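Review form for a predicted model. The reviewer records the input and the model, then writes brief findings.
Reviewer: anonymous (R2)
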Amino acid sequence: MLTVYGDNRSGNCLKVKWLLDRLGRDYRWIETDVMSGVTRSPEFLALNPAGQTPTVVLDDGRVLAQSNALLLYFGESTPFIPGDRYDRARMLEWLFWEQYSHEPCIAVVRFQRALAGKRADEIEPRLIKRGHAALARMEAALAGSDWLAGDGPTLADLALVAYTRVAPEGGFDLAAYPAVRRWIGRVETAFAIS
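Model under review:
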């Protein structure tokens, strides 16, 4: 059976879980507390030498990691990858941007505040500034569109909602981003996220 090693506190893990659930895929979830050091154990490093979650063991025993690679793998031949070449490229553009410009700020600040217990004044100001810049870019894109790429929900929406919806846990007030807030609701509905 498909096995997913993931931490329920991680947006990167949850977005894979949400897609599998939405697609009705059977899988076994192994809760993997990344703060416990288990991902640095010899057993886990034998599965994923990067020592990161999510890590998936496919039905045939092969291992695959990196959340957006997993989204693309499981999303193949679903409506969540646009058929139009340009829309598909736009989806990929957002997926790459999510891991380079969004997650390193929004997720890191959220981790430091909500999980590591740092005070607001202990957070690097550059991360806060870059996080707001990421939210502003999303706000601009969503001001005139319901979705990030194409005419319906795509993997880009799923990838970006994972940490955007919990950005307030990092101190990012979403009140200044009304289009983003409306989009979060649409994505949660489209992917049955509660």
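Findings: The first helix runs from residue 11 to 23.
Further findings: The first strand starts at residue 3 and ends at 6.
Recommendation: see findings above.
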